[in-house]
Each structure stands twice: as structure tokens, then as C-alpha cells.
Amino acid sequence: MRTPAQHLSKADARLGTLITRIGPVKPRKPEHAELYPALLSAIAHQQLHANAALAILGRLKANCAEALPDPATLLALPDEALRACGFSASKMAAIRDVAAKAADGTIPTRARALRLSDDALIERLTSIRGVGRWTVEMLLIFTLRRPDVFPVDDFGVREGYRLLHGLEAQPKPKAFAEIGKIYAPYRALAALYLWRAADEMKKPAAKPSKA
Prior knowledge:
Blueprint: H1 4-11, H2 13-22, H3 35-45, H4 50-62, H5 71-76, H6 79-85, H7 89-103, H8 110-113, H9 118-125, H10 133-142, H11 155-165, H12 173-180, H13 187-201
Helix pairs in contact: 1-2, 3-7, 4-6, 9-10, 11-13
């Protein structure tokens, strides 16, 4: 039986060359095990530099005994408190909806999430204000470690494929979904390698040193 890396290498020879060169890759360690705090963090990070988002979350924790608030606590916080943390009006509405959806069970616990399919989780979580498919796919890959998620809307994944295969333009998401079928059932691992391809191949080649 082939390993996931061997399967990807056989499916895509150019990806196989990259896999051989850089060796094993793994998803980064998730900051949160549960979906509720992971979604709060994801919303805080939207359209912000990571340091700015972490500062906002740090102020929120400082208001709540140095921990992210549970749903009931978050829903009870006044707008002024959230605004003082640095949340915009749209993000305040989004994190309040996250809390409400956690309270009513739309956002499952990790134990419950592990029994739900990728599609079921995407359908549930994209019903939350400010949460799109890409955000859920990132949670599936990095928080739940789902093996067969292929984020076709992700610029970096498409760019990695473009660079790896010497294409003039990135494949469109619909076409990329068809292309990605060759990587199943390890499409999340393929995405990790394509992100690496985008990072490495866009770097300018080192200039030769002068004698």
C-alpha cells in the first residue's frame, strides 16, 4: 500500500519531484482544539496582520480572566467593551453570531465534529455571519486534520500549482477542483505541498557571489 506522499508523487510527477526534494510536511499545530475559539480567532485575523489580530484577541482575553470568553460571556459583553478591544462593527456582529451559533449547537464540539462529514461542517459553519467556505476549509485542514480537503479558492494553492507546472495563469477554481481529484484522498496534503511550492518558487534565485 502506497503512503500518501507516494500516492501524490504517482498522481503528479512534478509534485513528486517537490516532495522528494523537501521531504515530509505537516500542518502547523492548531492553536485551538475546539471550533468555537478557532472561529473567533479566524474572524479576528480577517484582513489584518497577524500581530494586530493577536493584540485584539489579547485585549479580549484580558477582559475575560485571560481566556477567550465562552458563548454566554461573549454575548453579554457590551459593544463598548468589544470596540475597545479593537473589533470593528462588522467583526463584532460576526463574533456575536459565532457565540450564538455555538450556544444553539450549530457549531459542534470537537467530539461531535469528528462524526460529521466535511460537507456537513461546511454547510453548518458557512451559515455563520462572516464565515465563508475558505475559512471553514482552513479549520478542516488545520484544526480537525481532515485529509481530503482541497481549498480551490486559495490563491497560494493555485499559485503553487501554476508555478510548479509552468502555467501562464492560475487555473480557475472550478477547473482546479477537477484537477485536484487526482490527489484524492490526500488533497489536504497536496495543498500543503502546493503552498510550499508557492513560497519557494516565487523567491528570486540567489545571485552568484563575486570572486
